[in-house]
Specification:
166 residues; two-stranded antiparallel ribbon; 7 strands
Length: 166
Amino acid sequence: MIVCVAVVGHQNNPLYIQSFTEADDALKLHHIVHCSLDVVDERVNNPKKSGPTLNETFLGLLYPTENYKVYGYLTNTKVKFILVTTDLDVRDADVRNILVKKMECQTRIGWECWVPYWKKFFRRFHSAYVDAVSNPFHVPGKKITSRTFAERVSTIVKSFGLSSSG
Protein backbone atom coordinates (compact mmCIF):
# COMPACT_ATOMS: atom_id res chain seq x y z
CA MET A 1 0.00 0.00 0.00
CA ILE A 2 1.27 3.46 -0.87
CA VAL A 3 1.38 5.57 2.28
CA CYS A 4 3.16 8.68 1.03
CA VAL A 5 4.42 10.38 -2.12
CA ALA A 6 6.69 13.39 -2.27
CA VAL A 7 8.32 15.75 -4.74
CA VAL A 8 11.64 17.23 -3.65
CA GLY A 9 13.38 20.03 -5.54
CA HIS A 10 16.91 19.96 -6.91
CA GLN A 11 18.12 21.80 -3.79
CA ASN A 12 16.45 19.19 -1.54
CA ASN A 13 13.58 21.51 -0.68
CA PRO A 14 10.19 19.79 -0.30
CA LEU A 15 7.85 20.86 -3.09
CA TYR A 16 4.96 18.51 -2.35
CA ILE A 17 4.21 15.75 0.15
CA GLN A 18 0.97 13.83 0.47
CA SER A 19 0.13 11.10 2.96
CA PHE A 20 -2.42 8.36 2.26
CA THR A 21 -2.88 6.98 5.77
CA GLU A 22 -5.63 7.37 8.31
CA ALA A 23 -3.18 7.87 11.17
CA ASP A 24 -1.65 11.20 12.04
CA ASP A 25 1.87 10.29 10.97
CA ALA A 26 2.66 13.10 8.55
CA LEU A 27 5.71 14.20 10.53
CA LYS A 28 7.12 10.66 10.58
CA LEU A 29 6.60 10.28 6.83
CA HIS A 30 8.16 13.70 6.20
CA HIS A 31 11.21 12.52 8.18
CA ILE A 32 11.41 9.29 6.15
CA VAL A 33 11.27 11.29 2.91
CA HIS A 34 13.97 13.65 4.19
CA CYS A 35 16.24 10.73 5.18
CA SER A 36 15.89 9.18 1.73
CA LEU A 37 17.50 12.25 0.15
CA ASP A 38 20.91 11.22 1.51
CA VAL A 39 20.56 7.87 -0.24
CA VAL A 40 19.55 9.58 -3.50
CA ASP A 41 22.58 11.88 -3.30
CA GLU A 42 24.86 8.93 -2.58
CA ARG A 43 23.56 7.01 -5.58
CA VAL A 44 23.82 10.00 -7.89
CA ASN A 45 27.34 10.90 -6.76
CA ASN A 46 28.63 7.27 -6.69
CA PRO A 47 26.99 5.56 -9.67
CA LYS A 48 29.48 2.65 -9.73
CA LYS A 49 28.58 1.55 -6.19
CA SER A 50 24.84 1.39 -6.83
CA GLY A 51 22.79 -0.67 -9.23
CA PRO A 52 21.08 1.82 -11.58
CA THR A 53 23.01 3.28 -14.48
CA LEU A 54 23.44 7.00 -15.03
CA ASN A 55 20.71 7.22 -17.66
CA GLU A 56 18.12 5.37 -15.57
CA THR A 57 15.73 7.63 -13.70
CA PHE A 58 14.24 4.90 -11.50
CA LEU A 59 16.53 4.57 -8.49
CA GLY A 60 14.81 1.52 -7.05
CA LEU A 61 14.70 0.75 -3.36
CA LEU A 62 16.41 3.54 -1.44
CA TYR A 63 16.13 1.95 1.96
CA PRO A 64 13.75 -0.11 4.08
CA THR A 65 12.58 0.91 7.53
CA GLU A 66 10.86 -1.25 10.10
CA ASN A 67 7.42 -0.58 8.61
CA TYR A 68 8.06 0.90 5.17
CA LYS A 69 10.05 0.64 1.98
CA VAL A 70 11.17 3.83 0.26
CA TYR A 71 11.64 4.05 -3.52
CA GLY A 72 13.08 6.89 -5.57
CA TYR A 73 12.97 8.44 -9.00
CA LEU A 74 15.21 11.24 -10.28
CA THR A 75 14.30 13.53 -13.16
CA ASN A 76 16.84 15.00 -15.55
CA THR A 77 16.39 18.35 -13.76
CA LYS A 78 17.41 16.68 -10.45
CA VAL A 79 13.88 16.82 -9.01
CA LYS A 80 13.30 13.75 -6.85
CA PHE A 81 10.13 11.72 -6.47
CA ILE A 82 9.89 9.62 -3.33
CA LEU A 83 7.41 6.80 -2.77
CA VAL A 84 6.86 5.26 0.67
CA THR A 85 5.06 1.91 0.75
CA THR A 86 4.17 -0.75 3.29
CA ASP A 87 5.07 -3.58 0.87
CA LEU A 88 7.83 -5.13 2.96
CA ASP A 89 7.85 -8.58 1.36
CA VAL A 90 8.90 -7.44 -2.13
CA ARG A 91 12.59 -7.55 -3.05
CA ASP A 92 14.16 -4.69 -5.05
CA ALA A 93 14.90 -7.03 -7.96
CA ASP A 94 11.24 -7.99 -8.00
CA VAL A 95 10.20 -4.34 -8.12
CA ARG A 96 12.28 -3.80 -11.23
CA ASN A 97 10.88 -6.90 -12.91
CA ILE A 98 7.31 -7.26 -11.64
CA LEU A 99 4.97 -7.11 -14.57
CA VAL A 100 1.31 -6.36 -14.29
CA LYS A 101 -1.62 -6.55 -16.67
CA LYS A 102 -3.17 -3.29 -17.63
CA MET A 103 -6.70 -4.18 -18.62
CA GLU A 104 -7.45 -0.83 -20.26
CA CYS A 105 -4.41 -0.89 -22.54
CA GLN A 106 -5.46 -0.18 -26.11
CA THR A 107 -2.94 -2.01 -28.28
CA ARG A 108 -3.11 -4.22 -31.31
CA ILE A 109 -2.38 -7.29 -29.18
CA GLY A 110 -5.46 -6.81 -27.03
CA TRP A 111 -5.97 -6.08 -23.35
CA GLU A 112 -2.77 -7.75 -22.14
CA CYS A 113 -0.21 -5.01 -21.84
CA TRP A 114 2.71 -5.75 -19.48
CA VAL A 115 4.76 -2.94 -17.96
CA PRO A 116 7.10 -2.61 -14.97
CA TYR A 117 5.03 -1.76 -11.89
CA TRP A 118 6.75 1.02 -9.90
CA LYS A 119 8.42 2.48 -12.98
CA LYS A 120 4.96 2.94 -14.44
CA PHE A 121 3.79 4.64 -11.24
CA PHE A 122 6.72 7.04 -11.34
CA ARG A 123 6.17 7.82 -15.03
CA ARG A 124 2.55 8.79 -14.32
CA PHE A 125 3.61 10.79 -11.28
CA HIS A 126 6.29 12.54 -13.36
CA SER A 127 3.73 13.38 -16.03
CA ALA A 128 1.42 14.92 -13.42
CA TYR A 129 4.35 16.91 -12.04
CA VAL A 130 5.28 18.21 -15.49
CA ASP A 131 1.71 19.34 -16.07
CA ALA A 132 1.63 21.10 -12.69
CA VAL A 133 4.89 23.00 -13.14
CA SER A 134 3.98 23.90 -16.73
CA ASN A 135 1.21 26.08 -15.33
CA PRO A 136 2.22 29.69 -16.09
CA PHE A 137 1.17 30.72 -12.57
CA HIS A 138 3.48 28.23 -10.87
CA VAL A 139 6.72 29.73 -9.56
CA PRO A 140 9.62 27.30 -10.21
CA GLY A 141 11.20 26.01 -7.01
CA LYS A 142 8.18 26.84 -4.86
CA LYS A 143 5.76 24.39 -3.26
CA ILE A 144 3.14 22.88 -5.52
CA THR A 145 -0.22 24.07 -4.24
CA SER A 146 -2.38 23.07 -7.19
CA ARG A 147 -5.57 21.22 -6.20
CA THR A 148 -5.58 19.67 -9.67
CA PHE A 149 -2.15 18.17 -9.05
CA ALA A 150 -3.22 16.81 -5.64
CA GLU A 151 -6.34 15.25 -7.16
CA ARG A 152 -4.34 13.75 -10.00
CA VAL A 153 -1.80 12.24 -7.58
CA SER A 154 -4.65 10.75 -5.54
CA THR A 155 -6.14 9.29 -8.72
CA ILE A 156 -2.80 7.77 -9.70
CA VAL A 157 -2.40 6.18 -6.26
CA LYS A 158 -5.96 4.83 -6.36
CA SER A 159 -5.44 3.47 -9.88
CA PHE A 160 -2.65 1.30 -8.55
CA GLY A 161 -5.09 -0.13 -6.04
CA LEU A 162 -2.60 0.29 -3.26
CA SER A 163 -4.29 2.84 -1.04
CA SER A 164 -7.41 2.37 0.99
CA SER A 165 -7.76 6.09 1.68
CA GLY A 166 -7.06 9.22 -0.26
